[in-house]
């Protein structure tokens, strides 16, 4: 994973690729959290493959993209058969199509592919307008700092991960003392259900996620239960963060 979708921490995937290749491993990078927040150079990383999801680059849900080195793709066999992935079919044999069609069996989700492509072009153009990736990164860090500063010294706010925003990218996960969030296997005695806070925020127009965020082993590693996560995008501004901070405190008070 290039950037953790829970901690916001960036891993040294170039070093990981080097170590992996040193023992003959195939290195595939999860770039879902990194592609919309930092520049990603697959040649510099030297990974064998990298994947990312479409909705995190402001495209359609259910879409995504795979990069893979051509020499590796040429050695792989398709896992699915169907139209377009074959050049010809005989009674007792068939000939596979060239790349990339041999891995695209059947009728693809054409609409999502087109919209995802346009979303990436939109993001690229917007980055050029605002002055590049460094501007976006500093913008997101200023928003994270505003949010974390607003809870500085508040005992019930339990941050998950590093407080230094210079070591975070795009997300903040946290717990609220005395509450348990969706996915908690056994609600600890005395804890309140945290889903009510999430619902309160939703009704006020603020979307957050609660749970393990597809990273339950990570939560287990740090001995914490499900968390609430705030995700930032290129469209967020300081007023959004101030509103969220205010509403989160209101939601907590309304839960007692």
From TrEMBL:
One of its GO terms (molecular function) is cysteine desulfurase activity. It holds the Pfam family Aminotran_5. Keywords: Pyridoxal phosphate. Its cofactor is pyridoxal 5'-phosphate. Residues 1-244 form the Aminotransferase class V domain. It catalyses: (sulfur carrier)-H + L-cysteine = (sulfur carrier)-SH + L-alanine. PANTHER family: CYSTEINE DESULFURASE (PTHR43586), CYSTEINE DESULFURASE 1, CHLOROPLASTIC (PTHR43586:SF8). Belongs to the class-V pyridoxal-phosphate-dependent aminotransferase family. Csd subfamily. This is Cysteine desulfurase. It comes from candidate division WS6 bacterium GW2011_GWF1_35_23.
């Amino acid at each position: 994973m290039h950037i953790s979708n829970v901690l916001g921490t960036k891993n040294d995937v170039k070093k990981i690729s080097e170590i992996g290749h040193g023992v003959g491993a195939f290195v595939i990078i999860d770039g879902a959290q990194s592609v919309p927040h930092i520049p990603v150079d697959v040649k510099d990383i030297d990974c064998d493959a990298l994947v990312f999801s479409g909705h995190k680059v402001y495209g359609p849900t259910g879409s995504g993209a795979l990069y893979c080195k051509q020499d590796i793709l040429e050695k792989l066999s398709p896992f699915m058969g169907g139209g377009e992935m074959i050049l010809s079919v005989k009674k007792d044999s068939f000939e596979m199509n060239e790349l990339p069609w041999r891995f695209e069996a059947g009728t693809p989700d054409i609409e999502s592919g087109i919209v995802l492509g346009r979303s990436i072009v939109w993001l690229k153009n917007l980055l050029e307008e605002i002055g590049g990736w460094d501007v976006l990164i500093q913008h997101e860090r200023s928003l994270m700092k505003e949010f974390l500063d607003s809870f500085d010294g508040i005992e019930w706010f339990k941050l998950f991960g590093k407080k230094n925003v210079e070591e975070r990218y795009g997300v903040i996960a946290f717990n609220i003392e005395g509450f348990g969030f969706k996915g908690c296997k056994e609600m600890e005695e005395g804890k309140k259900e945290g889903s009510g806070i999430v619902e309160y925020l939703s009704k006020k127009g603020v979307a957050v996620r609660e749970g393990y965020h597809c990273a339950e082993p990570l939560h287990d590693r740090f001995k914490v239960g499900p968390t609430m996560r705030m995700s930032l995008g290129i469209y967020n501004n300081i007023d959004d963060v101030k509103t969220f901070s205010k509403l989160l405190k209101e939601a907590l008070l309304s839960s007692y």
